[in-house]
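Please, why this fold?
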Amino acid sequence: MPHLPHTSIHLNALADFPMIEPNNDLAAVLIQSLQHNGIALETRDVVVLAQKIVSKAEGRLVRLADVQPSARALEVAKEINKDSRMVELILSESREIVAQRPGVLIVEHRLGYIMANAGIDQSNIDHPNDEEYALLLPENPDQTCAQLKSALDRHFNVDVAVIINDSFGRPWRMGVTGVALGAAGLPSLLSLIGKPDLYGRAMRVSEIAFADEIAAAASLIMGQTSAGQPVVHVRGLQWEEQSNSAQTLLRPRHQDLFR
């Protein structure tokens, strides 16, 4: 079976995780926090991190006063009644605008995600001196996950997985849910095609967004506002398949029936 049944899965938020500042050594902070929480990582454990702490560590904060809107940004900002500086950041992080409405742009992010406002946010970040700042997504979430996994593996002498989690809205569904922006050490996408169902019938199209399911579960503990629990330790999952990155979860454009 490619996707083993899990009779018990344990998720624990790391207590007292420190506020992350630009250029912090996130791997070192993670290791210290795990030890502070009495957690010795084991093989097949998963560490899920909120996107914001990764972006902060990578210095992805931008002061809006330093942003000069382009003519295109000014035009779009007028159409949707949005700060032209924010629009400039969104456009600079995007390949194209997919849809727009007052106050929001749905774009294809430069990394391939279809998302609102290129994932750029102003919540849960410091705005020093009463100036406005915005936080961009990490430069390369899959690569960051691979680097963090390598550091954790070396320190604990294990083979773990790492996921960077973010909150996405979804077409046809209200509300947001956690999804995997980046992943390393596990199969982000599990294929059940050709495997038998309960009645022996071969599955034809079923695939499981394994990394997204883990990210969504971790989101229940992380919270969306002031919970202050940006790292979740997951134990009890099993898999046999080869690892693939979160990029595997992106539907190819030729299969996108809605653009």
The first strand starts at residue 10 and ends at 13. The chain is about 25% helix and 25% strand. The two ends are 35 Å apart (CA to CA).
